[in-house]
C-alpha cells in the first residue's frame, strides 16, 4: 500500500483550467489515486481512472456527510461561513443513507424521464424564443443571451417557481459554490451574495407555505411542515435545486459549444444528421463534463483506496473528467465522436448519488445544442480559443462568457 506522504499536486490555475486533460492523463498513467491541493489549501485524494472512479462512486465505505471530515479538512474546506453553512448545506449531496434515501424520494418524481419528455415541447418553445430575441446576425455572447437563461426558465417550470419570483433570481447567486476564502479580497461580496440568496430562498418558502400546490417546491414545504424535513434541510434542498439545477447545465452548454466549434467536422455532422442529437449529447458530456470533479467523500476509518492508504476523515474526490477520458474505457478517447456507441460515461456520477436531474439535463442539452447549431448559420467563435476565460471553480468546468458570431439567424423549424 502506498504512503500518504506524497507531495500534493496543485489542481488549479488558469492553464490547468484551460486544459486539465494532459495532467489527468499523466496522473492516470502513474496510478489511480493522487494527493492534490485546491486554491483554499484543502487537500484531497483524487481518483482518476475509469474503473477506479466507477468503484469509488459505489463504495459503501465512503460517506458524504461533512461531519465525517477531519478537523483540518473542516478548517479549510468549510468555505461557506455560518450561519449559511449550517442552514444551506444540509442537502442531498451531503447526506448518507437513510437520510439521503428519504430526501431523494421527495424529489425523484419531479424529474422522471416520462415527465421530462412530456415537457419537451414547452422547453423547445423557450429555447426558440431566446434565439428569436438574438440579432439576425453578428456577434453575441451565447452565455448572456441563452446559456444562462434557458436552464433557469426550464427549472422554474419543472419545480413550480412562480414567474415573479423567477424574474427576481440573480444568476450570480449561483456562484456561491465557488470557493472564496476568509482572507480573499472578494470575501465581503461573497458573503453579501450568500445573504441575498438566503433571503430569496426564504421568500420562496413563504410563498409556497401560503399558496400550497402540487409542484415540487410546494411538496418540499409540506414535508417540512409535517416534520419529514428540518428547516435547514428544506432551505438546503431549495438551495440545491436553484444552484445545481441551473449552473451545471449553463456550463455544459458552453463546454459543448466549444467542443463543437473546435471540431468543425463533428459540428457539420450534427448539422447534417440532427437525428444523432441523443448520441451527440452523451459524447459532449463525456468529452468535457461540466462536473469536472465530484464533491467530497470520507472514510470513517483508515482505509485502502485502490492501493493507497487514506486516513479517516481525509477527503476523497473523483475526477469525472479524467475517468471519461480514460483510453481503457473509450477508444480514441481524446477525439470527439458524436455518434460514439456505447458511451458509458460518468458525467452524472454513479451509485446512490447519481444525479437525480439527469433526465432533465439530457433533454435540456439536446434542445439547447440542437437549437443553437441548427438556427445560427455559420456559427463560429468570435475570439481565439485561447482567449476564452474558464471559471475558476474547483469542481466545475465552463465559461462565463462565450462570444460567437454567425451569418444568419434561421427561422424556427
UniProtKB/TrEMBL annotation:
Annotated organism of origin: Lentzea pudingi
Family of the protein in this entry: Belongs to the cytochrome P450 family.
Keyword check for Ion transport: no
Descriptive protein name: Cytochrome P450 hydroxylase
Stored InterPro entries: Cyt_P450 (IPR001128), Cyt_P450_B (IPR002397), Cyt_P450_CS (IPR017972), Cyt_P450_sf (IPR036396)
Swiss-Prot/TrEMBL keywords: Heme, Iron, Metal-binding, Monooxygenase, Oxidoreductase
